[in-house]
Amino acid sequence: MRYLPLTDADRSAMLQTIGAGSIDDLFRDVPEAARLSGSIEGLPGHASELSVERQLSRMAARNLTAGEGPFFLGCGAYRHHVPATVDHIIQRGEFLTSYTPYQPEIAQGTVQALFEFQTQVARLYGCDVANASMYDGSTACWEAIGMARRITRRTKAVLSAGLHPHYVSVCQTMAKFTGDRLETALPDLTNGAPGDDMARLLDAIDAETSCVVVQNPNILGHVADLSELAAACHLKGALLIAVVTEPVALGAIRSPGEMGADIVVGEGQSLGVGLNFGGPYVGLFATRDKYVRQMPGRLAGETVDADGKRGFVLTLSTREQHIRREKATSNICTNSGLCALAFTVHMTLLGERGLRDLAALNHAGAVAAADRLAQVPGVELVSGPFFNEFTLRLAKEARPVVRALADDGILGGVSLGRLYPGVAALEKGLVVAVTETTTRDDVDELAEALEEALA
Question: Are 144 and 334 in contact (CB under 8 A)?
Fold first, then answer.
């Protein structure tokens, strides 16, 4: 493919057409503090391609990656072992170059893979039907709120204090354009019980409520029974939306669908998809049969052709490309096909028993780590049942402690002060995740480094 850069005349013509005086006018909505002024630090103004590649490689080497030392980061993105088979299959040409099924009749392998992905997600979430994936977990969460609005014709959504703050932020941004009213709260480190805001959620449900959104396990890692909350929602005509950011947890705990959730969404990164410095990831979305026509995204289905042979089609595709925009049920970024395939391959390799074994391994490791770290002077375990992630309350602010640990080559967890900047009540919280990739030596290193940082 040829590289055809624009000329100054081209740029001027484009700016004149859209009514902008300069290219800078296109960025006027971006706050000044967020804009880059001058050149990027460390990069030469002019250099050969080889020199630039070497310079970028040196800059990249300054990163401390997940595999270089003890790693305890979580909060919605988790380090799990991804079998080599996953990458081998998704990089095959027939998948890598055709992962979006715009022409299902000639993309049968892709559509079949999506059909199997949907089946796996529906079983994992305990729901009747799942779609062919979403952009990521946070946008799937917002799409669920929009779906609840369409079903109930109400505009008040009650968000749990345990919902990931990045998910809350995405929902708040989108609600500015739809008129949805979001009721939010902050997690409580002084109590820390898994149902610490359950009473607030139950009290907030009224005739105006379209849905209640609750994460399980929540941002502190705590696990809760959602059955009572689901019953309360249904009594008032509202829907329960459950968010799962760690799908491996569902190998050990009851699925949200079994507990009465009407819509279940979340992030599928844990299975088949590496951390990749934050993306691309894959959103999961499932619901009950009776709500399927309000579900966003694509839905692949099984059928037979004119000769009676098994085939696969897109049965519902309620996106702007397929129907009139005013009837669309989702935004345009609704399918992460290659990541969905990676999820499917990993799930297939595990099987039901393998997923349960993996979940048990994660939980056992987290329990052992929590017990070990709670013995460190200046560290207190925030109470509540958990899966593979738990919260510690430190004797001092967690953010500088995390930086000190990183200087020692240990990625020791996510500070709540980073997730909730300016909230003094949460600044001593540290969320620690343990997976099958975490060794006993890793935990001992973290414990020793924590003791030194808190001394």
Answer: no
CB 263 within 8 A of CB 144: yes
Q: What pLDDT shows up at residue 44?
A: 67
Give the Cβ contact number of residue 24 at 10 Å. 9
In the chain, which stretches have pLDDT less than 70? Answer: 1-4, 42-44, 98-106, 191-196, 317-335
- For the chain, the residue count is 455
Amino acid at 34: A
Contact status, residue 154 vs residue 141, Cβ threshold 8 Å: no
Residue whose entry in the numeric block shows the structure tokens 């898994």: 194
For the record, the structure tokens of 313 come out as: 């089609």
Cis preceding-peptide flag for 217 (omega within 30 of 0): yes
233 and 205 Cβ atoms separated by less than 8 Å: yes
**What is the CB-side half-sphere exposure of residue 161 using CA atoms within 13 A?**
21
How is residue 71 annotated by DSSP?
B
What is the b/e burial string over 234-260, where b = at least 16 CB atoms within 10 angstroms of the residue's CB? Answer: eeeebbbbbbbbbbbbbbbbebbbebb
* SS3 per-residue string spanning 79-136: CCCCCHHHHHHHCCHHHHCCCCCCCHHHCHHHHHHHHHHHHHHHHHHCCCEECCCECC
Predicted pLDDT at 315: 84
Check residue 1 and give its pLDDT.
44
- Please, are residues 181 and 329 in contact by the beta-carbon 8 Å criterion? no
What global pTM score does this model have?
0.89
As a whole number of angstroms, the distance between CA 277 and CA 158 comes to 31
Q: Are 99 and 110 in contact (CB under 8 A)?
A: yes
Please spell the DSSP secondary structure of 384-450, one letter per residue: S-BSSEEEEEESS-HHHHHHHHHHTT-B--EEHHHHSTT-GGGTTEEEEE--TT--HHHHHHHHHHH
CB 238 within 8 A of CB 230: no
Asked whether 238 and 215 are in contact (CB, 8 A), the reply is: no
